[in-house]
Amino acid sequence: MFGVKQSLVVDLEKVDKATAEQYGVAEGSWLLRQDFVLTTQDETEKLRDKLATEALQKLGLNNLKLVDHLPVPDLD
User: Fold this and answer.
1) C-alpha 62: how far from its chain's center?
2) FRET partner for 48 with CA separation of 20 to 30 A, picked from 6, 14, 31, 69?
3) For residue 3, is it within any domain?
4) How many whole angstroms separate alpha carbon 68 and alpha carbon 49?
5) Nearest to 66 by CA among 44, 45, 42
6) Same domain, 16 and 28
């Protein structure tokens, strides 16, 4: 079975005359309006490490630590 998340479904609009002139596109072209949120590399790495640590804990692997974002045995 295949499906699409409802949050990914968007309505397309037609480009009006003012927008067409402003951006140099043909009037009546399809227009997709979507907000994107970009994160910094630091924010991405922190979130990845946080989620990885939580996943390791759920698996009972508390004797591991992350080094360069990879799990390794904590021998200290």
Assistant:
1) 28
2) 6
3) no
4) 9
5) 45
6) yes
64 shares a domain with 53: yes
Q: Is residue 5 part of a domain?
A: no
In this structure, are residues 56 and 72 in contact, taking their beta carbons and an 8 Å threshold? no
The verdict on 58 and 32 lying in the same domain is no
Q: Are residues 47 and 74 in the same domain?
A: yes
Which residue range forms the structural domain that includes residue 14? 10-37
What does pTM read for this prediction? 0.53
Non-local CB neighbours of 45 within 8 Å, separated by 6+ positions: 69
How far does Cα 36 stand from its chain's mean position?
9
76 residues of the chain, pLDDT tens digit each: 678 888 888 899 999 999 999 999 999 999 998 888 899 999 999 999 999 999 999 999 988 989 999 999 988 7
